[in-house]
Amino acid sequence: MYRVFKSLWFTKGEVKFVALKEGVILVKFGNMEDRKRLLNLSPCLFNQCLFAMLPYVKDQDTDAYAFNLMPFLLRIFNFPLEYMDRQVAMDVGKAIGEVVAIDWCDRNREYIEYIRLKVMMDVFKPLQRMVHLVSSDGAEIVCAIKYERLPTFCYICSLISHSTQKYDRKKE
């Protein structure tokens, strides 16, 4: 895993990996620009599993970190053009999690057919697949949510912790 990440990250400075305890690895960056850039790339996947990257806080115990909260990129489709404004995007994003960033333009700064959000989500909760909007005249609009760079998850219960093949219907 260390070798793969080192080759994928293209860092300017040296990167060191230190295993603290089972499942927790401290990554030391030799360059602050590399650290900032890679923390913004979350979620990071390794072998279709989430690799939570959180900034180090001095004197904080590893149990105090919220490894279950991850920023995910998602696209909301079927969003009416007349509702494409910052406040509506914030409201829709808050229904999913904590909004980190909003984008509804492509690289040429032209409008696109969806709103793209970066939302902080709890990975232990089911993924939302749609959002319902109610227009000013009372009409309900169903907007589909598509996630970017999503790890393996269960299509039946929408949890990230397992895949559909490993789903135990008896527990349900």
TrEMBL record:
Coiled coil (UniProt feature): none
UniProt cross-references to InterPro entries, sorted A to Z: At4g02000-like, Zn_knuckle_CX2CX4HX4C
Domain Zinc knuckle CX2CX4HX4C: 121-166
Pfam family, any one: zf-CCHC_4
Protein name, as recorded: Zinc knuckle CX2CX4HX4C domain-containing protein
The organism of origin for this protein: Gossypium stocksii
